[in-house]
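It would be a great kindness if you could assist me with a short task in structural biology. Thank you for your consideration; the sequence and its tokens are set out here.
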Amino acid sequence: QAQLVESGGGSVQAGDSLRLSCSASDGRTFMWYTTGWFRQAPGKEREFLAAISRSGHSTYNDDSVKGRFTVSKDKFQSRVYLQMSNLKSEDTAVYYCACAQPGTPSRLTSSYESWGPGTQVTVSS
């Protein structure tokens, strides 16, 4: 399976925006799989944030970030993005992208077959 790598994390102030990017080593994985974004804060379980379908035509957001986080793909389906706006201190976490078999995206981490190493996002208030 292709390796996934997240990028774009960093330290920002509350209210700022940040765009995370997920790339795959084969450059085409996102054409065949549903891609999800998750995050894990210290001492907490990994939680589902958003996902985009294989075609890119359907997106799904967790209610906790709806209206602030948007998942998308580039037109070549070579990268999947997570645009985050109005960031809050509670958004501080390691953010992961992951791929799952195509179909209705699952919120369960066990449904995703491959994962990136994560990128740290730190939001200061």
Summary: The chain has a mean pLDDT of 95. The chain is about 0% helix and 50% strand. The longest strand covers residues 93-100. The CA atoms of residues 35 and 99 lie 5 Å apart.
